[in-house]
Amino acid sequence: MTLAFTIAIFILGITAAFFGIFVERYGPRIAGLTTAAVLFGLGTVGAGVSVQLGSLPLFLATFGVTGGMGLGIGYISPISTLVDWFPDRRGMATGLAVMGFGAGALVTGPIGNFLIQNSPIPIAFYGLGVGYFVLMASGASYLENPRTGGSLQGLTRRTSTRTPAKAN
Question: Is the pTM of the predicted complex or chain greater than 0.90?
Answer without folding.
Answer: no
